[in-house]
Amino acid sequence: MLPPAAAAGTEGDTAMHEGHRQRIRSRLYQNGEALSDCELLELLLFNAISRKDTNPIARELLDCFGSLAGVFDASPRLLVSVAGIGRSTAEYVYLCGQLLRRAEARKEEARRRLMSFSDVHSHVCERFAGRLRERLELYMVDANFLLLCTKSVTDIRADEVALDMRTLGYILGEVRPYAVILAHNHPSGKPEPSAADDASVRRIAAACKDYGAHLSDSLIYAAGEVYSYYRADRLRALGID
């Protein structure tokens, strides 16, 4: 058993490390891009190494392999040669490297382009074919109309879908899309928009405008048919530019 003074010191060290971890996690959440390579690697190691200061280990990894790219390119056998890195941690870091390489290699092919009506029509049909309950989706695209993010909302009732404007604002603020494409389905089988649909389109278009994006189209899928607000000139009729 540790002497009382030593035990107190150990508890103090643990509390200090936990406080440091919480502070750096908060910084990641608020502005992760401002963190240094060492801090990011230190944070990553939190998931593999508990109750231990991972900053010296992160520094040793960067010193040994020269950069973050070098760390993630290293094999598990090389990683375990670094002080503080056991087999499970080496496997975890190596796994992260494998995921990063595959994500980078497939980044462009995985991002769908929604530039033309044909692109959007195909995408909407794929997403909504066979769905029996009403669903609302927002496709957020960049200036090249490459898909950045999809937000889907499904209500528990089959006859209505509601979108929380506060949630939408949060997502728009984080993604910062160039444009937004709205789509939902009518399980009843008729794609013509209702007054409620028009009201929702107006609200969503206004929210998009507040965040520097524009609503480029709103589509309704029903029984294989797709109604486009843009092609029907309904956006202009609703005062949406």
Automatic annotation (TrEMBL):
Span of domain UPF0758: 21-89
SUPFAM superfamilies referenced in this protein's UniProt entry, alphabetically: RuvA domain 2-like (SSF47781)
Domain of life: Bacteria
GO molecular function, a single term: metallopeptidase activity
Protein name: MPN domain-containing protein
Keyword Protease: yes
One Pfam family hit: UPF0758_N
Domain annotation RadC-like JAB: ranges: 116-229
Family: Belongs to the UPF0758 family.
Keywords recorded for this protein, A-Z: Hydrolase, Metalloprotease, Protease
Chain coiled-coil ranges: none
